[in-house]
């Protein structure tokens, strides 16, 4: 049973009210840490807004690493750090499970209790951007920096760094920072989807690293989840654009909408291309080859 709105109202440093989600549903409260509750998002938000150079510098350094890393490893033996890789993937999986547990319920709550317009347009700082959910949106934005370490493991293990891999890491880091610093009301929807997919994806990578992946855990389903996320991202950005276009009170930033649609649209194309190239074409070729030998 949900608690009353007044009992769960918090206020940020400018006096704007918001609802603390861990209080809205009292049965969830024991599963939240005290440091998560009633978090004021404005100090961190303003700090990030004043430092737009941070993601740009990170992307430049990342690009340098992508270019020179394989060259440095060219005449060196591949590193053997599978245990470290396994621990890293397990950490990211647990972090993503925690993030999904904090953001998915709030998204579902909003979808059931608010209009589509409010979900797309309402000021995020007075909704999901504050309190415990707001904390995890903040952590999500910053998690895109350590996720760049995924590429380091590819390089030191002398594996190819695909265009899809580095393009995804760069664009999602820039977009997430941009969306967060603009207090995008659709940010939590994107975050909830990404947390959910990453929780499963990194757990799969963990099992692969320790060679304990069960046969039923087909990597095809990971790519299918990623494609589903991209479809969801396109749908959310299109809905957001429709409300932004007709509603002058919609707080959604047009740059967030347009860049989000371009990003998710390109991801959808690239992941579908990857899916076909890895799972469909080889099976089709094997089937044709088998028919010719019969």
Automatic annotation (TrEMBL):
The keyword Lipid metabolism applies. It comes from the Eukaryota. This is Elongation of fatty acids protein. Keywords: Fatty acid biosynthesis, Fatty acid metabolism, Lipid biosynthesis, Lipid metabolism, Membrane, Transferase, Transmembrane, Transmembrane helix. InterPro entries: ELO_CS, ELO_fam. The chain crosses the membrane at residues 53-73, 85-104, 162-180, 192-210, 222-244, 256-280. It is a multi-pass membrane protein. PANTHER family: ELONGATION OF VERY LONG CHAIN FATTY ACIDS PROTEIN 6 (PTHR11157:SF17), FATTY ACID ACYL TRANSFERASE-RELATED (PTHR11157). It is found in: Membrane. Its main location: membrane. It catalyses: an acyl-CoA + malonyl-CoA + H(+) = a 3-oxoacyl-CoA + CO2 + CoA. Belongs to the ELO family. It comes from Seminavis robusta. GO terms for biological process: fatty acid elongation, monounsaturated fatty acid; fatty acid elongation, polyunsaturated fatty acid; fatty acid elongation, saturated fatty acid; sphingolipid biosynthetic process; very long-chain fatty acid biosynthetic process. Pfam families: ELO. PROSITE patterns: ELO. It is an enzyme of class 2 (transferase). GO terms for molecular function: fatty acid elongase activity. One of its GO terms (cellular component) is endoplasmic reticulum membrane.
